[in-house]
Design a protein that fits this description.
70 residues, mainly beta, 4-stranded antiparallel sheet, 44% strand
Length: 70
């Protein structure tokens, strides 16, 4: 079960991957997507297989307007 990454509605999702930059030891079945919500929060999520069909998500917060100084 993946927990909710955004607090407001998601307005854009882009599926992507690092084909040339992927390290040799990296999981070949891993994939990534970038999502952006209405508040401007941008998150990169890397999805990969752990074991027995269980998928794990690593989240990288790229932009979070709520944590920026005003």
């Amino acid at each position: 079960m993946m927990k909710e990454l955004h607090k407001s509605p998601v307005v854009s999702i882009k599926f992507c991957d690092w084909i040339k930059e992927k390290p040799v030891e990296e999981d070949k079945a891993a994939w990534m997507f970038i999502s952006c919500d209405m508040e401007g929060k941008v998150i990169i999520s890397k999805v990969f297989s752990m074991a027995f069909g269980i998928l794990t998500v690593d989240k990288i917060s790229v932009i979070d307007p709520s944590k920026m100084n005003k």
